Automatic annotation (TrEMBL):
InterPro entries linked to this entry: AAA+_ATPase (IPR003593), ABC1_TM_dom (IPR011527), ABC1_TM_sf (IPR036640), ABC_transporter-like_ATP-bd (IPR003439), ABC_transporter-like_CS (IPR017871), ABC_transptr_CydD (IPR014216), P-loop_NTPase (IPR027417), Type_1_exporter (IPR039421)
GO MF annotations, alphabetized: ABC-type transporter activity; ATP binding; ATP hydrolysis activity
Transmembrane segments: 20-41, 53-74, 139-156, 162-180, 237-261
GO cellular component assignments: plasma membrane
Subcellular location: Cell membrane
CDD domains the UniProt entry points to: ABC_6TM_AarD_CydD (cd18584), ABCC_MRP_Like (cd03228)
Protein name (database record): Thiol reductant ABC exporter subunit CydD
ABC transmembrane type-1 domain mapped to chain residues: 22-304
Top-level taxon in the UniProt lineage: Bacteria
GO biological process: cysteine transport
UniProt main location, coarse: membrane
Keyword field: ATP-binding, Cell membrane, Membrane, Nucleotide-binding, Transmembrane, Transmembrane helix, Transport
Membrane topology: Multi-pass membrane protein
Amino acid sequence: MKGKRSLIAIQMTAQRKRLIYLTFISLALGAAIVSQAALLAEAVQRIFVEKASFSSVALLLGILLVVMAIRTLLSYGNGTVGLHMAATAKKNMRAAVLQNFTHASMPSSLQGQTGGKVSIALDAVDEADSYFSQYMPRMVETVIIPILILVVTFTQHINSGIIMLVTAPFIPIFMILVGLKTKNKSEEKYTQLAEFAGTFLDSLQGLVTLKIFGRAHRQQQEIERSSLRYRDATMDILKIAFTNTLMLESIVMLSIGVVALELAIQLLVFKSMSFHTAFFVLLLVPEFYSLLKSSGTAFHNGRTSMGAIRKVETMLADTNDRNDLKDQPIGLRTFPKKLFPMPPAIELDNVRFQYAPDSFELNTGSITIGPGDHIALAGHSGSGKTTLLHLIAGLLKPVSGAIMVNGNPLTQQNETIWFEHISYITQHPYIFAGTFADNIAIGTGRKVSRAEIEAAAADAGLSKVVSQLERGLDTPVGEGGRGLSGGEKQRLAVARAFLKRPSIILFDEPTVGLDLHTERILQHSIATLAKSATMITVAHRLYTIRHADNILFMDHGVLVGSGHHDELMKRLPAYAEMVDVQRKGVPG
Ligand SMILES: Nc1ncnc2c1ncn2[C@@H]1O[C@H](COP(=O)(O)OP(=O)(O)OP(=O)(O)O)[C@@H](O)[C@H]1O
């Protein structure tokens, strides 16, 4: 965040033109307010003091009406400019948040609770509204109009001007004191809301697990506690708002009273001023304080908004830091495509990786993967197979060492082009709410025909499953693949890969759960897909390990050996032991 401009400053610069409009409208509004008071004072003077006929003041009253209409229009204009500013600012902020989510690196996407992120993207951005729609227009008005009124008052009656000058600062001082507290409270409110949203979504998604473990009631209490914390934070802000209003009203009433008293004494006791001047000043004084008062309310809303904007800012800064943008792949146009004979040769040169300091560490040593090789990553649970797969995929960045693709560092490849060549079939592929066909079609960025989707489904061994469904490929699938078996989800992922025809297949083999028939279908489809591709499999089945061109055997984050099955059986006791356990325990 150091040296970076705040979100508000960025928005203000982007909307400089509207700020200039606000300034001019406020100037005109100030002039209209003073003119209205002057005309009204003149009309009252003529009608009630000088007893002038109606026809002689008709023109004056006409002008007064026009000025009042202009004043209304200017107020409306100020509000409209503020609303436009708020709409643009919210649109920009939401776009920045969405851009941040879509460009987030793998580790960054995995951090934090989904519900919390959604709440910041929606609620916190919405809360930013009043900063631009109310706070800014009122602040511009407050800087211009009260000064204008004060100058006019001084020219009419110095004593009233002095009273106004002395009492006015109490309002901003009070606003600042309250505002500081409000901003902190508002940040707290958004932390509570994000926490509440996160807990709520998490509980909804894990409802079945919670019920099975008899934790539903306890989780319900946790949601209740979380919602009460949010309520308390909101009530704290409301408490400040009510106290704020009470204090502001008191200051304003008292100040107007003092000026009115002073005017009355001058007019009636000392007879040192005319009725016209006294009435003119008396009309200006409430305008002066009402502007300061409304800016006080706007200030409170503005500070609440600032707390929300600060939350958005922190989230953007956090993910930016984690994404480490300066290390992101280079731009699309600068990438030379000829460096990409596919499938590529991949080399790992002493790659070292850690998720966090003092945590699990991965050291690969030197690994070479030839074009079209079928590699099995083997090792005990937690030995770092998936981490290595993510490094090769470019989803994680090495702390030191390099992953070279066709002789070029992977970190310098363009992410979009690199991902165009990869299919990653995880154990739990994400299935979106939609139809089978929609879910298969996302396998490629290009437009695909129905025939292509049907062919991909058939290649992935889904034809039988689909034919048994009443609506076939148009059958809706629940969010997160609800209603599909683990094998069906993986086959859907394979169908996506058939559409894409990747040069590199990264496959996280299912550890458990598939029946022999489904497993054969899956193996067969993946073997077809892998014919013209490099395939790197996190292998749990002995069958897969034995048939690999090369086995990379990992132990506690270190690549302890590589080679063919027979070779490793002779050379590596740890490998032989793992195979032995597999043979005895798990069907290979
Ligand atoms: N996102 C993460 N943040 C921090 N540590 C992680 C993260 N992902 C994995 N780890 C840790 O890194 C180590 C290696 O995990 P990894 O998933 O690579 O092992 P694995 O060999 O694939 O295991 P399995 O066969 O059980 O899937 C483990 O100790 C794990 O706790």
